[in-house]
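Reminder to self: tokens first, then the designed residues, so the page reads top to bottom the way the pipeline ran.
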């Protein structure tokens, strides 16, 4: 298979034709591989995060426990200045118990989870069910005056289709080649308008149901096979939901809808206990570092989001990324490196609700941007308002910042890296990947990828990158579902990813120059989500 800049000879120094020599210290790479493959602690770290601590919903006691445990563990490994950096968030929330039954036309237990940040039922709540699909605000008018006292099923039922057999997948040559080919942008810059509409609708729909007198909301889980996804975004203080809500297994939801279509009455009994945590309206990210040389060294960062959803243990989303980043810096400390640049770790809170932690870091340390007061953003996280805002004023660390590396696409091994259109960085990274071709990591693409914490860095014009990973069963089964447990994290993949992450961090910390930057963002361009 053709790879980016193939045919380059492997040596202690790797050279591109027509380019300055890109140095790769293979003696250090050997030490990284030896430590990472033969004395790895990545599975031990991931096990504690998932089996011991468990779910880490932003603002919850579990998330704070994970913050403090990672801070202490990084300190134990020799990192310095380990601390928590806070951001305004709103109340935390945890699920205590749920029991759901269909009581009419027959009694049977239903598989469901409460939807995050919705209240409990204060005892069993029983009521008649109505199917009122509410996909957008334009659907509200049809159901005005019809929902009082009802348990409302708000999602449509898609037409039946064959189930895909592609549950677990490794990237093959064709997939990687397709990822490598650059997708020329068309139709102007993308934006966050879709994300704004998506998040805002959670608030708008719940408020409509409450106004109409509905007693509970039922959503259909998007996956089949009894997999339940129950995430929502209504955590803002003063805008919290007022009616209970659950996400029901696809098969149980569709059965109820079929009964209703047959004109048979359906009733549910819903009993949900939840706890809101309001002692501290902030949530936190964990920060630690391996100091560089001199008084004001440049900075290399690596990170992953520490928070998860609550329905499972958050093993692949994103305990895996957290464990890999922690293992990478443990490896570097274990082999005794003395980096030229400071190596800083960011284990972010609030990624699942909109890059809270990473964006707060960017605004606190790197740039200052004015707040966007557009009314359509009233339900958005405060720091997302600052996407795409100008003028952008660099802070003290902006010029000292070299690069940020992120891992957040499950527990699959690294197959390469997205470079966000940064051609100069692409050639550098191709050299850095050369010692890992035997591990399946070869592909460098100029394409953009979204949905991870590299974006707040990239948005302000700083080099931020996400690795290409094997998908495994991340998207098909695990993402935000109740089976996201340690059983689905693969030791060989996580060891490979840790070794490559450590190598990239080391190379960036030691190269003569910081990672090249793309042209600075300009006013008028829409931000990416």
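Designed residues (529 positions):
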């Amino acid at each position: 298979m053709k790879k980016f800049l193939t045919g380059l000879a492997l040596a202690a120094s790797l050279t591109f034709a027509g380019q300055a020599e890109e140095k790769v210290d293979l003696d250090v790479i050997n030490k990284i591989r030896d430590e990472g493959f033969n004395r790895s602690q990545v599975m031990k770290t991931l096990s504690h995060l998932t089996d011991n601590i468990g779910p880490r919903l932003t603002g919850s006691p579990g998330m704070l426990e994970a913050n403090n445990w990672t801070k202490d563990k990084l300190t134990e490994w020799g990192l310095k200045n380990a601390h928590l950096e806070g951001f305004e968030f709103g109340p935390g929330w945890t699920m205590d118990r749920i029991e759901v039954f269909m009581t009419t036309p027959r009694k049977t237990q239903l598989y469901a989870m409460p939807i995050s940040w919705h209240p409990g039922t204060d005892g069993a709540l029983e009521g008649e069910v109505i199917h009122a699909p509410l996909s957008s605000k334009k659907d509200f008018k049809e159901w005005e005056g019809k929902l009082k006292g009802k348990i409302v099923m708000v999602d449509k039922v898609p037409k039946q289709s064959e189930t895909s057999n592609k549950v677990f997948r490794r990237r093959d040559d064709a997939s990687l080649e397709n990822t490598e080919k650059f997708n020329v942008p068309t139709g102007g810059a993308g934006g966050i308008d879709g994300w704004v509409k998506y998040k805002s609708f959670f608030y708008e729909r719940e408020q409509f149901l409450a106004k109409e007198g509905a007693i509970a909301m039922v959503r259909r889980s998007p996956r089949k096979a009894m997999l339940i996804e129950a995430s929502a975004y209504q955590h803002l203080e003063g805008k919290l939901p007022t009616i209970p809500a659950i996400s029901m297994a696809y098969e149980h939801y569709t059965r109820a809808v079929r009964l209703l279509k047959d004109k048979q009455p359906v009733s549910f009994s819903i009993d949900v206990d939840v706890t809101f945590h309001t002692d501290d309206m902030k949530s936190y990210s964990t920060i630690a570092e391996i100091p560089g040389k001199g008084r004001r060294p440049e900075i290399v960062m690596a990170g992953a989001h520490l928070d998860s959803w609550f329905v499972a243990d958050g093993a692949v989303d994103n305990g895996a990324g957290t464990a890999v980043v922690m293992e990478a810096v443990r490896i570097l400390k274990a082999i005794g490196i003395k980096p030229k640049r400071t190596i800083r770790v960011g284990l972010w809170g609030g990624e699942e609700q909109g890059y809270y932690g990473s964006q707060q870091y960017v605004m606190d340390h790197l740039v200052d941007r004015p707040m966007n007061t557009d009314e359509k953003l009233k339900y958005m996280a405060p720091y997302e308002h600052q996407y795409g805002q100008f003028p952008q004023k660099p802070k003290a660390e902006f010029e000292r910042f070299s690069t940020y590396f992120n891992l957040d696409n499950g527990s699959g091994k690294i197959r390469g890296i997205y470079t966000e259109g940064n051609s100069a960085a692409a050639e550098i990274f191709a050299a850095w990947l050369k010692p890992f071709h035997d591990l399946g990591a070869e592909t460098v693409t100029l394409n953009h990828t979204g949905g991870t914490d590299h974006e707040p860095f990239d948005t302000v014009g700083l080099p931020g990158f996400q690795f290409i990973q094997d998908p495994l069963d991340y998207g098909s089964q695990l993402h935000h579902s109740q089976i996201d447990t340690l059983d689905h994290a693969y030791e060989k993949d996580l060891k490979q990813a840790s070794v490559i992450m450590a190598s990239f961090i080391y190379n960036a910390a030691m190269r003569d120059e910081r990672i090249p930057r793309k042209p600075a963002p300009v006013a008028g361009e829409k931000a990416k989500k």
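Residues 13-89+281-510 form a domain with the Aminopeptidase fold (CATH 3.40.630.10).
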